[in-house]
Amino acid sequence: AAARALYSEKVSAISFADVGGLDDVKKQIIRRIVTPFRKPSLFAKYRRKAGGGVLLFGPPGCGKTLLARATAGECEARFVNVSVVDVVDKYIGEAERKLSAIFADARRDTPTVLFFDELEALAGSRSNHASQSHVSLVSTFLTEMDGFANNNDGVLILAATNMPWGVDAAFRRPGRFDRVQFVPPPDRAARAEILRLHLAARPLADDCDADAIAAKTAGYSGADLENLVNTAVDVAIEETLSSGVEAPVAQRHLLDALQEVRPTTLEWLTTAR
Ligand code: ATP
Predict the structure, then answer these.
(1) Is the shortest distance between the CB of 22 and ligand 1 below 6 Å?
(2) What is the similarity comment for this entry (predicted)?
(3) 85 lines ligand 1 (CB under 6 A)
(4) 12, 34, 101, 269: most buried, per Cβ within 10 A?
(5) What is the Å distance from ligand 1's center to 26 Cα?
């Protein structure tokens, strides 16, 4: 990932329909980011200032990055994925320049969704890292994000962290990440939806039952479920190769995959903090 500090996609091809479950989170993003972007004159009429960002937090693999990319799709915007760790890693002074260049690039080519992954690397409580370079990087970020200091029209800001308690309170003031949104592990209905999304367009046997698998996968993240489907698909491909007859993905493949792919969110929920 180090070589990919900045990953930019022309216009994101993914929309909210590609994200299973998370209806409340989608609703918040629509209210805070998509509608202000689409209806600026309505917001102006109601004297409702647009701007600021949404900070997503929750266990790994539950759709934070996917949601950010889908937000870009909903706004027909470019998607730029910024690895905060890679920015922070630079020499003193260089990190500030890099960060400012990222914002300048976004303003030049709007609409753009800027997605800051692992924000805690930048926004770690200042009391813990009182170093001068860190303070200056935080202040660069907050200034760039500030809609008074800059014209950020068409620059849509999302960030993600697995450790929201490690994010400096300065980031959560109005006009900044004033919305902190939990992205939970999928519940049973969401798991069924995610499984159907990942099974779609594959050769499937009639006995494939996403609801039955959803019932057996409490604690699985979206990424775990994707992994489960891929594991089942690999076995179907192997069977096809050895028999010479196309073996569709069947329920037994999915059930077998359950033994191999274990859930990962419970560990985060119990050990984080
Ligand atoms: P991390 O904290 O590790 O960065 P994340 O929350 O950003 O994790 P994603 O990168 O969005 O997780 O998810 C990884 C992959 O898992 C996605 O690309 C997608 O294939 C699948 N996935 C996760 N959540 C969902 C979901 N709600 N619907 C459909 N697919 C999902």
Answers:
(1) yes
(2) Belongs to the AAA ATPase family.
(3) no
(4) 12
(5) 14
Q: Is 192 in the pocket of ligand 1 (CB under 6 A)?
A: no
Task: Taking the CA atoms of 154, 87, 18 and 64 in sequence, report the sign of the dihedral they define.
Answer: negative
Helix%, strand%, coil% for the chain, nearest 5: 50, 15, 35
Cβ-contact 122, 138 below 8 angstroms: yes
Q: Which of 4, 12, 24, 65 to mutate to test the pocket of ligand 1 (most atoms within 8 A of CB)?
A: 65
